[in-house]
Amino acid sequence: DFVTPEQMIPPEGIQDVNGRDLLWEACVTMNGNWGYHATDRFWKPAPMLIKKLVECVSKGGNLILNVGPNAKGEIPKESLERLAAIGAWMKENGASIYGCGKAGIPKPDMGRITRNGNKLYYHLFENTIGPMPLPGIRKEEVDHIRYLASGAEVPISTSWVHSDYPDIVFANLGPDPVLPDEVDTVLEVTLKE
Questions:
Q1: End-to-end Cα distance, the chain
Q2: CA–CA dist 179, 154 (Å, integer)
């Protein structure tokens, strides 16, 4: 059985009384109502819904997103817009969600981390100043890093600016301070087996 909190995401996922992870999924609406409600205009933006999906997976859960058709059986355009944006993001970044779960690494400042086997997915919600720290792993553990959406390789930084932090891997994202995906840029880190 699943534990299914409604309209909220548990702060740390859900565990039993012995601290073992339970299967869970957050059941969430796109606006404030479970079914169609013509006057409810408080729609959650697509970037928020994408980040909440990532949050659920990073905590070992799943996201159930409610869609309420109107009396004619039509899906509201606001829902369709959000579903299209989520689908476009998933088309490029689905590997960081499907089959993934907790990474076993504390939440970093810049976003979230999901994991599938020897692949860690660093979800970057914002950029940093200088090279991007990838906490929770050591340089010698990393086989390679790439942008998940494009497949482009990302080098490990050798800059002097982080020489005081030898136990943290830093990714060299280049000189552009703007991340390729303003909602969630995903770095796929493949660990050595």
A1: 33
A2: 13
Crossing angle (nearest 10°) for helices 77-93 and 46-58: 50
Per-residue model confidence as pLDDT tens digits over 114-127: 999 999 999 999 99
Q: What is the pLDDT of residues 126-184, one digit of tens each?
A: 999 999 999 999 999 999 999 999 999 999 999 999 999 999 999 999 999 999 999 99
Q: Which residues of the chain form beta strands (DSSP E)?
A: 25-29, 62-66, 111-116, 119-124, 132-134, 142-147, 169-171, 185-191
Are residues 82 and 89 in contact, defined by beta-carbon separation less than 8 angstroms?
no
d(CA 67, CA 70): 10
Which residues pair with residue 6 across a beta bridge?
27
Q: How far is CA 185 from CA 82, 107, 123, 132, 135, in A?
A: 18, 16, 6, 12, 16
Whole-angstrom distance, CA of residue 101 vs CA of residue 114: 6
